[in-house]
Structures are given as C-alpha cells and as structure tokens.
C-alpha cells in the first residue's frame, strides 16, 4: 500500500465508514486519534505500521497521559489504534497485533451520590396531602424511593402495572424488559390513597391508563417530575444537588447498608450486570471507613478523647 502511514489511514477510514457504518463524528474522532498516533510513531522512527511493537503503543498511551488526557480519552485512543491494527491483519498488511495484550485504561468509577435517611424522610414529608396534587406527589415520591425505579419507569407506569394487594409492580425497563419489583406497605398505602379519589379529581371526566397524571389529564413526564422533586427538596431544606436518580441511588445504598443480598438489589434495579450493582458495596465501604476514621481511637483523624473533669477540691 502506497502513501506511507496516511495511505493506511485512508484505507482504514474508508473501511469503517463503508463496512462498519460508523457515524460521521465517530469516524472523525478515529481519524484524529490515529493522526496523533502516527505523529508519535514518526517521532520514534517507526514509519511502517506493520512493524509497530507493543512498547510503541504503550509509549503513545503514556504520552497521552503526560498531556493530561483522561483515562476515558486514553481508552478511546486505544480503541482506534486497536481497530486500525486489526484492520491491517485482516487485510494481510501485518501479521501481529501490538495491542493484543494491552489492557484498556479504566477511569476510576465515581461513587454515586445519595441522600441520608434523614434527608429522605424530610423529602417524603414535604408534599401537602390536603390537596389532590399533594397526594399524587406523595405517592410518586414514596413509590420511587420504595422501589428504586428510574424516573422514566415511574412516569410510564399504568394502572394495571401496580398490584398493590399482592405488594408488587411491573416496571418496564431498558429495552422494554419487564421486571417485578416489590412495593413496601407505606408506598402501597400512599398510592392506594391517591387512587381512592385524588387521581379521578385530577382527571375530571377524562380517562387515562397512566397511573400518575397531570391536572390536564396527561401522563406525568420526566421533566415534570424533575421540577417537582427540586421544588420539594427546596421545601425540605435539602441544599445538595438532587435528581430522580439520586433517589434510586439512595434506595440501593440503604438496602445494601442493611445487608440486602446484592443479587436481589440487582434484580430490583433491573441491572443486566451484577458489576453495575456492586458500586453500592463500595459506597457502603466508604461510609464504614468514614465512620471508623471519625470514631475509632486509633484512627489518625479521630477526635481526641475529652479530658475528665476534675472534681472541685480534688
């Protein structure tokens, strides 16, 4: 193949555009990443990509890290480089893949943010249940915290999806996958109270299959619930950033803290992979460490013991 490194690059870009059907922005990102890669190869005196060794790729990744690129960006670069070398092998332009034994750089996973039990209690107490909208909002908040649903799943619930007598609901998750989620007694009570009159009051003479509806009779939206949640958080005196997903994190964290089986939590959350749920064990470990550091007498950060008061005249 003629044209040096750029000739190989042109052939690879044509391949991923035509054969793999990648989006234009993705193709442009691959081209930019590989152009930077080729510049590093030239600096190392490597002009034939078939002669690239694993240490050349490793040096490139180290160079990216030295420039301040995040682990996520480094992983994207490596994906482009790996795809390029596999293309060379498939097209018989090279015999070995120098990226074969390289691990993808992994960014440190950020621990999910959640509410304390006290903050949850304050939030759930915020709606005014003397009004139909307040009873609806109370039912939504209680149900979201009781089940750990995604806000989209909460808003898409239909009347027939909630089986309060049996103590469960049917959530429609990602990919239209359905799962059965248990509902606690308090949440069941609040949803039942909402269904006992306030919902029909909001509907008037209209009909709807949606469980939670607006005063206009339409199904509640994610955006609408987001605004509602922020309003109640402000009323409850919660100053930290809040989102519907934070209630989902709080649900899972509080369960794991109390010894819930991780597989059960995974099933309730609708996670396809247990590794996604395991992040909550790290949250629990982090909290335990904070408690230890604060209170254990042998911890460097523990507060020193208070000196005993001497009795007068002693």
TrEMBL record:
Keywords: Cell cycle, Cell division, Chromosome partition, Cytoplasm, DNA integration, DNA recombination, DNA-binding. The keyword Secreted does not apply. GO terms for biological process: cell division; chromosome segregation; DNA transposition. It holds the Pfam family Phage_int_SAM_1. Residues 3-89 form the Core-binding (CB) domain. The active site is at residues 150, 174, 245, 248, 271, 280. The keyword Nucleus does not apply. HAMAP family: Recomb_XerC_XerD, Recomb_XerD. Belongs to the 'phage' integrase family. XerD subfamily. Forms a cyclic heterotetrameric complex composed of two molecules of XerC and two molecules of XerD. This is Tyrosine recombinase XerD. It comes from Stigmatella erecta.
